[in-house]
Protein 1
Amino acid sequence: MKRKSKVKLEHHLLKGILPALEEIAEVEGVKKVIPGRIYASDSRGFEIKVVRETLTGLKLLAKSDGSVQEIFLVVDKTDRGRVRGEIEKISEKWKKS
């Protein structure tokens, strides 16, 4: 039986972000990846970074050529430091200038 994705696909996504979100969803301790609002910006390239902790996990910002999207992760409090480190490694791999 195929496992259900941890990435919620209810909202629009920045172009090209889904593979990065699927990789983040596979990090041990990440229970759910919830894409949020998309805002216009003057950003260039592609970048994902952790901006803060939330009550239920972590908030990320994904930037891609003129847009920024909020990404929320559901992560247990005890796993947040480790998950943050793993996301930083993943974001370096996906970073584009």
Protein 2
Amino acid sequence: MSEPQPPLTPGRCLTGAAISGALGLAVYALTRAMVAGLTAHPIHSQNPLVLRLASLVRTVLVGGGTLAVVVLGVFTVGLVALAVQVAWSPPEG
């Protein structure tokens, strides 16, 4: 049997939003530092395959970081909206 879930409260929603927002800011800072590092170190090669693979890897890294930031931002906004909804809804029972 499953255990009963604790009640949904605005405090729990805002705690989750704070955690998600903090993680989003950390990933944003990491992505920004990664972009700065990749920009500061260009690829020095004459081989077209090396240039294409390096470009692919850089694009995947930056795209993955950006995707993580967007997903965590959406989670944060959704949890804040859920907290507002729970706070304004009449109590059940």
